[in-house]
Amino acid sequence: MKPVLSKRIGWILLIILVVFDAFLDLITGARGSSFWNPIARFLGIELTPLLTPFVLIIFYFAVKILGWLVRKIDKTPKSEELILTVLVVVYGIFDIWLVAVNFLGFTLITNHRLMIIPLTIIGLLYGLWAQKKLKTA
Fold first, then answer.
1. Cα–Cα distance between 76 and 74 in angstroms, integer?
2. pLDDT over 90 for what percent of the chain?
3. Rounded to whole angstroms, what are the CA distances from 83 to 35, 45, 67, 97, 106?
4. Residues 22-29: what's their mean pLDDT?
5. First-to-last C-alpha distance (Å) of the chain
6. Rounded Cα distance, 4 and 96, in Å
7. Which of 10, 91, 107, 121 has its CA 20 to 30 A from that of 127?
8. Count of H helices and E strands in the chain?
9. Nearest to residue 91, comparing CAs of 23, 35, 12, 17?
């Protein structure tokens, strides 16, 4: 089992997750997160789905830059795939949490700011595990 997704599959999944997230905001009447709102206001975008291309461009450059850093500093093969896979895992869990809170009545963690800690821990743990697998393969 490979610990990382191929770039093609990773980007397809990330696009689906970002679009799904944008439409969840639209369906629930949310105005987006406090992170994306300033960008949306700066760009003059009112509807969250219209922000999707800009979010994907930011993610693209983040994956490229962080992948380059991981490859140079840690000498990890497939570093871009690693960063992309971690992003897909974290964003996927975030979208599952959004559905659970908005449609299934999940009440353990209802504030998206409180999700930063578990998502960061999950991303770091998965990234470290996958990095170890990539280095030993």
1. 5
2. 60
3. 20, 28, 6, 21, 29
4. 81
5. 11
6. 20
7. 107
8. 5, 0
9. 17
